[in-house]
Write a structure and sequence with these properties.
four-stranded parallel sheet, ZnuA-like, Rossmann fold, Metal ABC transporter solute-binding protein
Length: 307
C-alpha cells in the first residue's frame, strides 16, 4: 500500500471533479435557489455539507476544515441505517446543502433520494469504487473506498468554493498522509492475519478483513441468511456453533449493533470454544470523531485477537 505521489493525487482529484461536473450537468433539480440558503453556514461563507452517516461526515469535516459546516443525519450506534426513516427536517437539510455525502450501495437510499432532488453536488462513496446495489454496502471499512471518496469530496469542495482550492488540496494531502499510515498498519498486521479463517455474525467488517487478507469462513447457510436480512434456520445456527466448537474458526467478528438471541448463541459458542471475539458496530462510536482513528483502533483489535 504505497503512498500516492502528489502528482497522482492531483490527477485523482481532477478525475473526480470531472465526474462530479458530468453528473451535475446531466442531473435535474427542483431545489430552491440561493434565496433559501439562509443557514449559518451560508451566511458565514462556509460550504454547507450534509452526510448521511457520521463516519463519512467525519471525513468531510477533515477535508474541509474551517471552510465547511458538516451536518450528520445519523450519529447513533443503535439506529439501523438500512431501515432509517428520515424526518422532514432531515430532508430539508439536504435541500440547503451545497455538497451531500452518502454511502450508496442501497445502504442509505433515503439519503440518495433526498440529495438527488436538490442542487447539491452528490458524492456517493460506493460508486467511487464501482460498488453497486447488492454488493456489501459497508464500504467505509475499505481502504480503496475511503481514499476514492476523499478525493471526490475534495473535488466537490473545489467546485463549490474555487477561491479556497489550494486549502482543499492541502487538507486532502494531510488526510491521505493519515490514511497511508493506517494502510501501513493494516499491511503490517496482515503479516499476522493473512489467510486466518474468521467468521462473522454479520458481514459488516468484510472489507477490513479483506484488506487484512483474512479468509471468511462463516458457514454458508448462516452467511446467506445474514446477507438476505432473514433469520437463520436452527440448522444454520447449529452448524455455526459446531464449526466454532471444531476449532477451525480462529476469530469471530461480532456486530454488537445487531445483537439478538441468535447472536447470543453464536458468541456463547465462541466463548465456550475459546475463539477470540472482535466486537464492533456499523456506525462510528461516539468516542471517535475521526473515521481513521476508529479504523486504526479496530485494526488493533484484530491484531490483539490473533492467537
Amino acid at each position: 500500500m504505497s503512498i500516492m505521489s502528489n502528482a497522482k493525487r492531483a490527477l485523482a482529484i481532477a478525475a473526480a471533479s470531472a465526474t462530479l461536473f458530468s453528473m451535475a450537468a446531466c442531473g435535474s433539480s427542483n431545489a430552491a435557489g440561493s434565496k433559501s440558503d439562509s443557514s449559518s453556514a451560508a451566511s458565514s461563507g462556509k460550504i454547507e455539507v450534509v452526510a448521511s452517516i457520521n463516519q463519512w461526515g467525519s471525513v468531510a469535516k477533515d477535508l474541509g476544515g474551517s471552510n465547511v459546516e458538516v451536518t450528520n443525519i445519523m450519529t447513533k450506534t443503535n439506529v439501523e441505517a438500512h431501515d432509517y426513516e428520515p424526518t422532514s427536517q432531515d430532508v430539508a437539510k439536504f435541500g440547503t446543502a451545497k455538497v451531500a455525502v452518502v454511502n450508496g450501495a442501497d445502504y442509505d437510499p433515503w439519503a440518495t433520494k433526498a440529495a438527488q432532488s436538490t442542487k447539491a453536488t452528490l458524492v456517493t462513496a460506493a460508486e467511487t469504487a464501482g460498488i453497486k446495489e447488492g454488493d456489501n454496502p459497508h464500504v467505509w471499512f475499505s481502504a480503496k473506498v475511503r481514499s476514492n471518496t476523499a478525493d471526490a469530496i475534495t473535488a466537490a469542495y473545489q467546485k463549490a468554493d474555487p477561491s479556497h482550492k489550494d486549502d482543499y488540496a492541502k487538507f486532502n494531502k494531510d488526510w491521505h498522509a493519515k490514511e497511508d499510515q493506517l494502510e501501513s498498519k493494516i499491511k503490517d498486521t496482515s503479516s499476522k492475519t493473512e489467510n486466518l479463517p474468521y467468521a462473522a455474525t454479520e458481514s459488516v467488517a468484510w472489507y477490513l478483513a479483506d484488506d487484512l487478507k483474512m479468509t471468511d469462513a462463516t458457514p454458508k447457510g448462516y452467511a446467506q441468511a445474514s446477507a438476505n436480512e432473514s433469520e437463520p434456520t436452527p440448522a444454520d445456527i447449529k452448524d455455526f456453533q459446531d464449526t466454532l466448537k471444531a476449532g477451525s474458526i480462529k476469530m469471530l467478528v461480532f456486530n454488537s449493533q445487531e445483537a439478538n438471541s441468535t447472536t447470543d448463541q453464536i458468541t456463547g459458542a465462541a466463548k465456550d470454544a475459546n475463539v477470540p471475539i472482535v466486537e464492533l458496530t456499523e456506525q462510528m462510536p461516539k468516542q471517535y470523531t475521526n473515521l481513521l482513528d476508529w479504523m486504526s483502533a479496530l485494526v488493533d483489535q484484530f491484531a490483539a485477537a490473533v492467537k
